Amino acid sequence: MKHISILGSTGSIGVQALDVCENLGLSLNALTANRNIKKLEEQIRHCYTVMPADSRPRYAVTADPTLYLDLKGALADLSVQVLAGSDAICEMAALPKNNIVLNAIVGIAGLCPTLAALQAGKELALANKESLVTGGNLVLSAAEKNNVHILPVDSEHSAIFQCVQGLSNPAEVEKIILTASGGPFYGKKQSDLEHVTAEQALKHPNWSMGAKITIDSATLMNKGLELIEACHLFQKKPEDIEIVVQRESIIHSMILCRDGAILAQMGAPDMRVPIQYALTWPKREPLKTPLLSFKQLGRLTFGEADEDAFLCLKACKKAFDMGGLYPCIANGANEAAVAAFLQGKIPFLEIGRTVWGALENLHPAGNGSSLEEILEADHLAREYAGRRFSEVC
Ligand code: NAD
Ligand code: MG
Question: How far apart are CA 355 and CA 216, in angstroms?
């Protein structure tokens, strides 16, 4: 039986991952969260109700040490061990009993746990794209050195990963066709986006996700982050990746093979499919998911991503070309900007301008070969964003 820890279990991916694990009958080692300890308590209690004793989580962890006593008190009647702090989350990533770790933390906070899991030789089901964007080379070399796989959970990367399973050699992939829904503002020009509110930006047409990735989907930063993620996971250059808008989110991504054949992975939008594939790979297990009816669907709609209206996508390409720590700078500026936008402190378009401005104005020290350099570059980007926002407000 597989033993798993779910990092970020209380989030959108985490909740669906727990559901998948329950259906697969996996044994849970740890569930971790940031500050939503009410939800974490609910999840632990649910596991105690429905799972056999040897499959129930042994650890419940909050990233926030000030919530330790509250969580410990809430779970006092159960035999689960309670821990707190970011180091404890890394410890959970490296638990000797794990065969696999699912990282569903949002943001660069997922980087250290990603490295901890890989360094401990654990298979990694990775939803946290920011780990690869900020620490790509470090993360890939940790996986290689410890001879473990990174199994993509992001739907597009899972689709590409599923498409390449049948090939005999990665060189047979000529091009990756990365699909994008286009988000809630598809077809709009920059001038239409001036007064967009958080409420409007949080309405994704096809997916229900955490707030940060939903805003990233509205700015197309998400597609930019995914482009970088795909370059790392599949060893491609941005020019080998074509971004195509697929409005219905039915085609999750495609590959063009060198003989001209195009392979696609399709299905109704349900993140439990890529989550489960990452956990059962190379096998497939049954899953209750809405099945696609082509007759009902009628047709699929394609289009182009507009980089002039959505500056974040252009900025991510630029960051990857600049290399070194620049993708980390773009990510840090974006994380700060999205948080400020959600708090009503900056307008929508300021997100893209902040990411672009950070790339043009900052000169991080180093090339991203150490964790310290990466965290320092992230800090630099957030400081820059903070300075901009105090001028804008
Ligand atoms: P979310 O905001 O719903 O959940 C995030 C989880 O991370 C929560 O459990 C939260 O408690 C935890 N967390 C937040 N900050 C933390 C910190 N500082 N330390 C430790 N834990 C922390 O986010 P989500 O939508 O589930 O996305 C998670 C990751 O998966 C992101 O990287 C996102 O880009 C990626 N992803 C999400 C989806 C989706 O459908 N939601 C799809 C593809 C990829
Ligand atoms: Mg995605």
Answer: 12
**SS3 of the chain: helix, strand, coil, percent, to 5:** 50, 15, 35
Which ligand 1 atom is the nearest neighbour of the CA of 208?
40
User: Residue written as tokens 């820059």?
Assistant: 384
Q: H helices of 146-210, where?
A: 155-164, 198-201
* Candidate from 9, 126, 213, 271 with most ligand 1 atoms within 8 A of CB, to mutate: 213
Cβ atoms of residues 97 and 117 within 8 Å: no
Say which residues have a Cβ less than 8 Å from residue 270's Cβ, sequence separation at least 6: 289, 290
> Helices 129-145 & 371-392, crossing angle to 10 degrees?
170
State the closest ligand 1 atom to the C-alpha of 89, by its place in the atom list counted from 1: 20
What pLDDT sits at residue 393?
A: 61
Dihedral angle sign, alpha carbons of residues 370, 226, 381, 214: negative
Count of other CB atoms within 10 angstroms of residue 370: 12
Q: How far apart are CA 356 and CA 306, in angstroms?
A: 16
Crossing angle of the two packed helices 349-361 and 371-392, in degrees rounded to 10: 130
Q: Which of 5, 1, 233, 14 minimizes the C-alpha distance to 100?
A: 5
The CA 173 to ligand 1 mean position distance, Å, reads 30
- pLDDT tens-digit map of 207-259: 889 999 999 999 999 999 999 999 999 999 999 999 999 999 999 999 999 99
Segment 287-318, tens digit of pLDDT: 999 999 999 999 999 999 999 999 999 999 99
Secondary structure, 3-state, 49-114: HHCCHHHCCCEEEECCHHHHHHHHHHCCCCCCEEEECHHHHHHHHCCCCCCEEEECCCCHHHHHHH
Antiparallel, parallel or unpaired: β 241-246 and 262-266: unpaired
As for ligand 1, residues whose beta carbon falls within 6 Å of it are 8-14, 33-34, 36, 63, 89, 104-106, 109, 127-130, 154, 207, 209-210, 212-213, 271
Cα dihedral angle (354, 110, 233, 225), rounded to 10 degrees?
-20
Strand 241-246 relative to strand 302-303, pairing: antiparallel
What pTM value is reported for the model?
0.98
